[in-house]
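COURSE: Structural Biology Practicum
ASSIGNMENT: Worksheet 4, Part C
STUDENT ID: 0417
INSTRUCTIONS: Below are two proteins. For each, the amino acid sequence is given first, followed by its structure token string. Answer the questions at the end about the second protein only.

PROTEIN I
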Amino acid sequence: MIKLYATHPHLSLKDKFASLRRSSGEMGYPKTGNPDLSFFRDEETESFSSEKDQERRETALRALDGCRLQSLDTPPPRPPTILSVGDRRIGEAGNLVQLQGQAKSGKTAVIGAIIGISLGGTGDCFGFQSSNPQKKAILHFDTEQSRCDHFDVVARAVRQRGGLHDMPEHFRTYSLLTIDVQTRRLGIKEEMARASEIHGGIHSVIIDGVADIALDPNDAKECFAIVAELHALADIHQCMILCVLHENPNTETGKTRGHLGSQLERKAQTSIVIEKGADEVVSMHARQARSCHWPKAEAVYFQFDKDHGMHVTVSDPSNRRIAKKIAAKTIKLQELADEVINGPMTHGELEAAIMTAERVTDRTARTRIKEMRQAGVIEHTPDGKYQPAFHEMKE
């Protein structure tokens, strides 16, 4: 017989409230008796008669009484930090974290780094920090990749980043590609309950492809329910749930898919953003975060390394990128000068030649002359005309 670990079969607001009540006495909130939680019924499937209006109001007030803060002398304990970068708290117990980026931008490498550091992390884990001395369950659900690709991702994470020979028992990973959407969602909830019972709790959950547990990521009702359910699961199991989501193609604002992405962005403690540059170097920072400040100016950078067969941390490429951009522009200016200058030319002659060659206005042509001078492509002759600057770059 299959045993279902359905400790929280609905994960509604009722479950969320019950979870919060258990710790209310430790956080400066009054201890109350067990309230009638029928207030949290689904009104779409169950209606209330007018005679029960007063009862509903009283139930609502009792629920609020259990959530009221009455003293500042006993602050709630800070939830343990599950994932951090330096002194930045990225993900704490009871919270959602979002990892977003364009397709094929390096999200899988970040997932591997997070798995690796959660398992002990002796390899390159992109600066992430995590601790799991009690060996609570680490769950990984992959909805996007084939079994072979899933195997390769896990093998790199465990061996090269985690520094282990094989998977430890408390790391439980699943390829959900062939499972239907509704079964995926239910299976994640049930596996969390089962793994928590077996391993004495959950450290973290990674859902690579969270949009694939929704029938329609643009359905507001469905997506709001999914995010609420995941948030409640994180709170009930006091773990971090990392949700991996694609950004819309060609977006300049980092907008993630549909209502699901919008709601995750609102509810996530941190939104980790990765961006791949034209030089294949990937930057990682936080666009929005409640508990830390991780600006793009302080990003972590990584790039695929053929010798290692995986992405590895690299230095900030900003200066190299600027130098490369300047060099490319200088080459274009040099090519333009070679095309239009046949000998010493006055400013007006050079301006007219550039206007003809590039089909631009006089204003743009004057800007080109200024850029050529600043780049050292042209120089003044003794009589004030322009000629090519003769130096090593000219060769």
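PROTEIN II
(use this one for the questions)
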Amino acid sequence: MSARKAPDLKGYFSGAKQSQQLSEAETEIQQLNSQGGEQLESQLEALRSQLKSQAGVLSVPIEQIQRNQEQPRQTFLSESIESMSRSLATDGQLEPIILIQQGDSYLLFDGERRWRSAQNLSWETLQAVVIPEPTALHRKALLTSLHREDLNSLDKAEAIVRELTANTDLKSQDIPRILSTVVRRLNAQKRMNSAIGLMTATAARQQEGLANLGLSDSEKAVLGGLLDLQLNPASVDANIFPMLSLAPDLKTAIRELGLYGVHAIALQKLSAKNLGVTEKKAQLIRVETTKKVIAEKLSASQTRKLVNEVIASHVKTQPTPVKKVTQVSIATGSLQKLSQEVFAQAEQTELEEFQEFLRQKLAEIEQALKTKMEAEKATL
């Protein structure tokens, strides 16, 4: 099935019909697939040109510009900001940012990297074109950013969950689990391809197709939301939502060091359980290994190989635990050897004496346990 084209944004932000056309633009953007990123970039550039010709370029004080908290992109690497700062310092601002008018202030719609870089340079103003405030701002920002290749998987996962949470009755922590469950079941039923095929279908066809898959309401809400965003549910389950369960140090590495998601998934295997160490020690090992991966620019396969080597080296160095043998364990072993047949062959007096002996020992055991419990409570 042929992929849908990126939306044509021409005219969507012009004239008195801007609000209505923004809604139409949203409908078109929903039809993006993963190959539409470059076309979207060109459309955004066309939008800037259109706004410049119609409304002109304004010189806006940076102090009046606020960051869009609904922006899907949360990661801005220092190297990227420094590179943009050098470009601005050398060549000036070549393209205006896009702002949303909010009373006497402005909200960033597109151009946050230039805004951050300008602040680093202590600039007082930025060149900008302005659009009215659209409804469903988070969704429009998400649809604009979602299919850009440089949006990392962690930012993408968090943005998708926010969008699904905002449009369903589901809790954010439940969404990845629901998706994983339905993907496994549809794969087992060999019906996953039917769900994926709905990505390029019309909204009505998507709803009809989902109804035929025998989904629960929550599963239908999650799959429907992903299809509406032109996202492959199986790919989101395998490659994007796993970012949400990464260790905090790996999330930090993605945001601050530029670690790729596929590398982070491999490094996640360096857990306390797999290494046979404490959580604190596992984190130290993971951080050092992550630094090595980034410094040496290892590929995903090289990272997986390194992780396996680290795990193997720690497993080998762990001493084999020696089971402590005590008189109690020896006595327990002896008692286990006393079978029903042994008791049947014993004299009655022997059994009565043995029974009385066990009663006395059980009383001693109960007293010992009571003493230990009281001592343990005293230390709390």
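ANSWER KEY EXCERPT:
Q1: The CA atoms of residues 54 and 81 lie 30 Å apart.
Q2: The mean pLDDT is 78.
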